[in-house]
Amino acid sequence: MTLADVQRRVVACERCPELRSYCAQVARQKKRAYRDQTYWGRPVPAFGDPGARVLLVGLAPGAHGSNRTGRMFTGDGSGVWLYRALFRAGFANQAEQHDRADGMQLRDVLITAALRCAPPGNAPTPAQRAHCLPFLVEEVALLAGLRVVVGLGAIGTRAARDAMIAAGYRFAERRPFGHGAESVASHPLRERAVLIASYHPSRQNTNTGLLTEAMLDAVFRRARGLVTRA
C-alpha cells in the first residue's frame, strides 16, 4: 500500500452517508462568493510530501474551503494562516494558496485531518471520527521517516495521538492539550516521534488573538528544529 492508494480510497469513501449528503448539498447550493465555481464536494485527501518527516493533523475540511477546493486547508482563513506559517518555516514554496492549481508545493510536510468530509458546524460525532481514523493510521504507518506530528486543535491532536498508538507508537505520559505541549512517542521499529499540540488556525482563534502568528511560527520552528537534528 502507498499513500496514493490511501488517498484514492479516501476520495471514494462512503462510510458516513450523512456527511456525504451534507457535502454534496453544500456543493450544489454553494456560497454566493463562489457561485461560479465547481465545488469538489467529496472526501478530501491528504496533501504534501509523500516522504514527509512532519505530519499535520487538522480537524476537517471547511464546507466552503477544502470541500470547495479539494485540497486540505485551502480556500479559507485557516489555510491563509497555515500556509503562510509553513512558508516562513521553509516547508512550503509559497505563502499564497487559492486552489489545487496554484502551484503550492510542500517540502517534508504532509497535511491531513481527523475527518475527510466537512461536518455540519465543524462538529464531528464520535462515530464519524472513528470511521475516518483508519485512514490516519495508515498515513502514519506509511511515513517511515516520521519525526514530528503537529495536532492542529484539540480534535486534531487527539486523532493524531490515537493514530500514532494504533500504528505502534507508545507514549510515556498523556499530557493535557495546550498550545506548544509536546509528547514523545517511542516505536519498536522506528526512531521516536514528537507530538506537538497547537491551537487550530481557525478564524475564531485568530480573530480573538487566542492564536497569533508568532505562536504558530514557534510551533513550526520547533518542528523544523526537530527534523533538522534528526
Overview of the molecule:
- The chain has a single domain, classed as Uracil-DNA glycosylase-like domain (Uracil-DNA Glycosylase, subunit E), CATH 3.40.470.
- It has a seven-stranded mixed β-sheet with strand order 1-3-2-4-7-6-5, with helices on both faces.
- The protein has helices spanning 3-11, 17-29, 66-69, 77-88, 126-142, 153-166, 203-207, 213-229, and strands spanning 47-48, 54-58, 109-113, 148-152, 170-171, 182-186, 193-198.
- By secondary structure, the chain is of the alpha/beta class.
- It starts with a helix and ends with a helix.
- It contains eight helices and seven strands.
Topology record:
Blueprint lengths: L2 H9 L5 H13 L17 E2 L5 E5 L7 H4 L7 H12 L20 E5 L12 H17 L5 E5 H14 L3 E2 L10 E5 L6 E6 L4 H5 L5 H17 L1
Parallel strand pairs: 2-3, 2-4, 4-7
Antiparallel strand pairs: 1-3, 5-6, 6-7
Domain count, please report it: 1
Number of helices: 8
User: How many β-strand stretches?
Assistant: 7
The description of the largest β-sheet is: 7 strands, mixed
Structural class: alpha/beta
CATH topology (fold) name: Uracil-DNA Glycosylase, subunit E
Highlighted features:
230 residues; alpha/beta; Uracil-DNA Glycosylase, subunit E; 7-stranded mixed beta sheet; 7 strands; 13% strand; globular
What is shown here, in short?
The protein has helices spanning about 5-10, 15-30, 65-70, 75-90, 125-140, 155-165, 205, 215-230, and strands spanning about 45-50, 55-60, 110-115, 150, 170, 180-185, 195-200. It has about 230 residues and is an alpha/beta fold.
